[in-house]
Amino acid sequence: MNRTILHCDLNCFFASAEMLYHPEFRNVPMAIAGDIKQRHGIILAKNVPAKTRGVKTAETIGEALKKCPELILRSPDYETYDYLSGKVRELYYEYTDRIEPFGIDECWLDISESIPYFGSWQYIVSSLLRRVKEEIGLTLSIGISNNKVYAKLGSDIAKEDEFFRIDSLDDIGHLPVSSLLGVGEKSIDRLHSFGIHTIRDAADSSPSYLESVLGKYGISLYLYANGLDNSPVARIDQAHEPVKSISNSMTCSKDVCGLDDFKIVLTVLSENVGRRLLNKGLYYKTVHLTLRDTHLKVRTLQKKLKENTDLAKQIYDEALSLFLENCDINLPYRSIGVAVSGLSDKKEESQIDLFEKSGTYSLKQKKKETAIEQIRRRFGKQAVCSLRVLEDSELSSFVNKNMIFKEDEKQI
Question: Hey, which residues are catalytic here?
Fold first, then answer.
């Protein structure tokens, strides 16, 4: 089947979103970064003036400021980024229902069946570039090919607000093999040691040879290099697969020392996971606790419950129990994470208790958590909070909107 696949990538998305609301940053060096007081002090995105001064994504704030002392730093505003990403995808839906997100700022679009309606792929691409710029205020780079891997590479090659089409290996064979999707630093070093430097080198190698070099991924690399990727682009109704787990972790601004500190962080994490469960109408069966100490040693614990539940309080209770039973309370910890798995959209049959007896599902707690969430939706996330988290706002960062949580929803 002759397909036409687009890969649309929003240019410098975080920085562009900030400049959309703050035009004064357009002509001065500006970057999005974690709070320097926290342990998240890296550059997440930068604008063109900052890039010309040598500022790079993923370098530390200190390194960036040495290159560009006048660099303006902005904390990430994920709610705004989610909103803008959604507005862009609404435009995509006007051209096709085959849309597959690849992060917050990238999407694959299969426009094969749309071309007869719009006349040509050129019309669709030029229309997308123009409308995203005029109607939303952002810019795209678009890659075009007959497969997802080459389309992704095309958007990497395309300049800002432009497109690049890849028809065959001849168009990109000279590029470094690291340009292909999924080739990491360790793979690059190993490929180079075997004399494979360009995409053409990988394409001309045999699948069995690449498998001997990289294991199973060697087969994928051969297919990717030759543009033999046949994986489909998901339709709208296929894009949202069932969630397998929900997690939330925090690298704290200071070491977590002692039980009181642990309870503060655990309260914040449990409430965040519980809120997302409530909003999705999901119940969990297993609670996970992950700890990383100051020596970067990671320990993961879990407990399977007798019956599934959706209560944030039970996440807290079970995680606390895991900590007390298995961990050294006096050991300093750098980061903590909680997760729930075994998710379902239905409550298992069980005894319902109005008086919170042990081992039963508490309707009283359910009503309490639902009421709190309704208040937060109406008056903001900080309208209601546990007194425990206010004992140390630096540690919990509950009252600091710049705190960066790592939230994850793993798909089946």
Answer: 106
Which tens digit of pLDDT belongs to each residue from 140-172? Answer: 999 999 999 999 999 999 999 999 999 999 999
Q: Which of 17, 69, 75 minimizes the C-alpha distance to 41?
A: 75
Q: Report the half-sphere exposure of 133 (CA within 13 A, side-chain side).
A: 13
Q: Which neighbouring-strand residues pair with 107?
A: 8, 101
State how far the Cα of 180 lies from the Cα of 200, in Å rounded to an integer. 11
Backbone torsions φ then ψ of 140, nearest 5 degrees: -120, 155
Note the CATH number of domain 1-167: 3.30.70.270
User: Is 3.30.70.360 the CATH classification of the domain at 243-411?
Assistant: no
What average pLDDT is seen over the chain? 84
Closest CA to 243 of 207, 275, 191, 282: 282
Residue type, 227: G
* Cα–Cα distance for residue pair 191/32, rounded to 1 Å: 34
User: C-alpha 387: how far from its chain's center?
Assistant: 30
Residue (of 327, 334, 316) closest to 250 by Cα position = 334
81, 16 in Cβ contact below 8 A? no
Helix then strand then coil, in percent of the chain rounded to 5, is 40, 25, 35
Strand order in the sheet with 284-293: 298-309, 284-293, 333-341, 243-256, 406-411
Q: How far apart are CA 270 and CA 256, in angstroms?
A: 16
Quote the DSSP letter at residue 263: H
Where along the chain do its domains lie? 1-167, 171-225, 243-411
Q: Reduced to 3 states, what is the DSSP secondary structure of residue 145? A: strand
Q: Which fold has domain 171-225?
A: DNA polymerase; domain 1 (1.10.150)
Residues 343, 243: contact at Cβ < 8 Å? yes
> Which residues neighbour 76 within 8 Å (Cβ) at sequence distance 6 or greater?
14, 32, 34, 44, 404
Number of H helices, E strands in the chain: 15, 15
Spatial separation of the C-alpha atoms in residues 141 and 75, rounded to whole Å: 25
Of 233, 23, 277, 292, residue with least CA distance to 114: 233
Share of the chain above pLDDT 90, in %: 47
